[in-house]
């Protein structure tokens, strides 16, 4: 029903009330002619409305009290004070009912405003100030949109052939995070689902019984170190998330970045299809606890997808996905998304957004004084001033303060930008990099991370000139010795950056930046690509059953176990039935040894054969004496005679062939 029709009904109902109240009045008959027609029309409509049961929709009552036409307004003004009082009370009561109904509808539909109230009353993952900063625009989650804007629609469409006439194509539901491809399998029966645990606990992924069995097979395949077992799992279960993550890492190791990116996109699509009906990224109702093991795969896929988008040059899309990753847990930030969101904001020219994020999120001074934001915020101020034609004085002051806090960042940044510093600057002790050699400080890794990631943001000619001018200003401050900041900042650097949190260590491991090592205390720990550095208080919905290994079932004696351990293929942690499965897979894929098909063997068998051949050659080499062996001359003479006979036979065959021609 339109708003105009509602106003007519409401206005006529008011006229009907006026008619009943003014029936006893005996004022002049001159007004009776004017009101008679509206009265009759209103009475008819009122009787019709009585027989119609309108739905109790609160949005249909929002315009109550508005008139329709000048006649209605004149009649309303002619009423007494009782009518005004009753109508005011009815309107206020109706507005209260409307507000309650609207809040209830918003709660069910996942309205952003309602989600803010829920978050504030719960664990506060979205505040009123942070909500607009993390608002997700689904249009910017599609990299094809950004590529079309950069290169044009025709160029992007030319890279993707049309598949209108292909048969047996898979038709998928459209995705928000990833656009599915026609070659992908259907997600039905994947075994993934999502459960809502409440406002505080948020959401959690659930694995079906079939998915749990596949997960155990995946663990066995990873421990065995056999890639063919992982591939077999993916053939039977194309949307097993951890297997797709592992395969993406294998493709990336072989520099097949396109296939690696497709594996991550497929994993994201499978997890998106399992979203709960209340899971809403745009509304902020999307809290996923990283402590729960089943939720971590979604974090990892988003992180790797952001890196893949940045590798393709889709910086605006990558920035939007950074907001998605940060909105999952804004308090803990388990993958330290704040260490890279500034880079993609600069590359996507989202300078205003970066400044608002710095004002709302980086509240304390300790959070502000990190290398990436200390350098990126002044750069954003500089670009805004150049864009709007304003003054860069505020950007100068911010950059000078950042250089006073992190003077050791200047030399490596200029080296990566291929800029040679003045002798006065490079030879000054204040800009020395000796502090980066401290093994107990985390500053060296943080600066390396920022410089290698954000070097492209500083390579512009205007930016380099602006940086050099502020470096000279910093030198003047240091040489005068009146400013207390250099000494104060040096003490602060010694107190901070000692032990990095696990979120930062995960960021180091997942960033794929060369030369960025891990802290010493984490080098000895086992690393899993599908779950790097899990939380100490991790929560698992199900536990892994105890597996019988080769060492646990080996009761042949100590001596035989010792001899077996000398074999290169011996693995005491290998599951007991792993070799049977390997033999079964080898028999299925082997084309037959009699046909000479060496490629029919599995990779592990080929590796074992090559290792055994090398060991046999080493034994023969070690068994030979250092002098010439006895009978060596005789063997050489026999070999020479055999070669001469072979050459003679070859010449005879050639003559016979010429005669036949």
UniProtKB/TrEMBL annotation:
Region annotation Disordered: where it falls in the sequence: 1-42, 56-75, 627-661
Instruction: Mention any Pfam family matching this sequence.
Output: Tcf25
Against InterPro entries, the record matches this protein to: TCF25/Rqc1
- According to the UniProt entry, which residue ranges have a biased composition of type Acidic residues? 639-661
Q: Which domain of life is it from?
A: Eukaryota
Recorded GO cellular component terms are: RQC complex
Query: Per its record, how is this protein called by name?
Result: Transcription factor 25
Q: Which organism is it from?
A: Biomphalaria pfeifferi (Bloodfluke planorb)
């Amino acid at each position: 029903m339109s708003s105009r029709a509602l106003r007519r009904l409401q206005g006529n109902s008011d006229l009907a009330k006026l008619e009943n109240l003014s029936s006893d009045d005996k004022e002049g008959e001159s007004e009776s002619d004017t009101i008679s027609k509206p009265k009759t029309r209103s009475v008819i409509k009122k009787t019709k409305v009585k027989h119609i049961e309108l739905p109790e929709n609160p949005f249909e009552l929002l315009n109550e009290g508005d008139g329709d036409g000048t006649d209605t307004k004149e009649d309303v003004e002619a009423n007494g004070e009782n009518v005004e009082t009753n109508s005011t009370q009815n309107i206020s009561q109706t507005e209260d009912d409307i507000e309650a109904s609207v809040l209830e509808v918003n709660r069910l539909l996942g309205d952003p405003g309602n989600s803010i109230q829920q978050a504030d009353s719960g664990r506060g993952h979205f505040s009123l100030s942070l909500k607009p900063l993390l608002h997700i625009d689904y249009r910017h989650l599609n990299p094809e949109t950004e590529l079309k804007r950069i290169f044009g629609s025709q160029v992007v469409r030319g890279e993707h052939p049309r598949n209108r006439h292909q048969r047996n194509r898979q038709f998928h539901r459209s995705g928000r995070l990833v656009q599915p491809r026609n070659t992908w399998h259907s997600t039905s029966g994947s075994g993934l689902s999502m459960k809502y645990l409440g406002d505080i606990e948020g959401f959690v992924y659930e694995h079906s019984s079939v998915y749990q069995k596949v997960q155990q097979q995946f663990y066995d395949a990873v421990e065995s170190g056999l890639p063919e077992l992982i591939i077999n799992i993916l053939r039977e279960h194309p949307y097993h998330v951890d297997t797709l993550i592992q395969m993406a890492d294998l493709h990336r190791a072989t520099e097949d970045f396109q296939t690696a990116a497709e594996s991550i996109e497929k994993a994201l699509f499978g997890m998106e299809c399992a979203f709960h009906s209340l899971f809403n990224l745009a509304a902020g109702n999307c809290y996923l606890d990283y402590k729960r093991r089943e939720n971590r795969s979604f974090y990892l896929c988003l992180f790797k997808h952001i890196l893949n988008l940045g590798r393709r040059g889709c910086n605006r899309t990558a920035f939007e996905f950074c907001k998605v990753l940060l909105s999952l847990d804004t308090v803990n930030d388990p993958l330290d998304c704040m260490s890279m969101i500034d880079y993609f904001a600069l590359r996507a020219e989202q300078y205003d957004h970066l400044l608002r994020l710095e004002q709302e999120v980086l509240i304390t001074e300790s959070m502000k004084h990190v290398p990436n934001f200390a350098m990126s915020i002044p750069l954003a101020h500089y670009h805004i001033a150049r864009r709007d034609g304003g003054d860069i004085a505020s950007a100068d002051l911010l950059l000078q303060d950042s250089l006073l806090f992190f003077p050791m960042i200047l030399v490596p940044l200029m080296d990566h930008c291929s800029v040679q510093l003045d002798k006065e600057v490079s030879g000054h002790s204040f800009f020395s990099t000796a502090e980066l050699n401290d093994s107990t400080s985390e500053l060296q890794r943080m600066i390396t991370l920022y410089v290698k990631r954000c070097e492209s943001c500083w390579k512009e000619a205007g930016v380099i000139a602006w940086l050099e001018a502020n470096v000279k200003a910093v030198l003047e401050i240091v040489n005068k010795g009146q400013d207390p900041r250099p000494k104060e900042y040096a003490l602060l650097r010694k107190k901070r950056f000692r032990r990095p949190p696990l979120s930062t260590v995960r960021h180091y491991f997942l960033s794929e930046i060369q030369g960025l090592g891990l802290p010493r205390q984490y080098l000895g720990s086992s690393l899993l690509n599908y779950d790097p550095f899990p939380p100490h208080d991790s929560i698992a919905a199900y536990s892994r059953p105890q597996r019988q290994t080769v060492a646990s079932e080996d009761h042949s004696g100590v001596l035989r176990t010792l001899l077996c351990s000398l074999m290169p293929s011996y693995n005491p942690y290998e599951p007991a039935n792993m070799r049977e499965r390997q033999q079964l897979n080898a028999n299925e894929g082997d084309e037959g040894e009699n046909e000479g098909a060496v490629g029919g063997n599995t990779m592990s068998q080929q590796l074992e054969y090559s290792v055994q051949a090398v060991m046999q050659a080493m034994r023969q080499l070690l068994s030979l004496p250092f002098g010439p062996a006895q009978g060596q001359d005789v063997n050489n003479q026999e070999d020479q005679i055999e070669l001469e006979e072979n050459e003679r036979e070859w010449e005879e065959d050639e003559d016979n062939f010429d005669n036949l021609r």
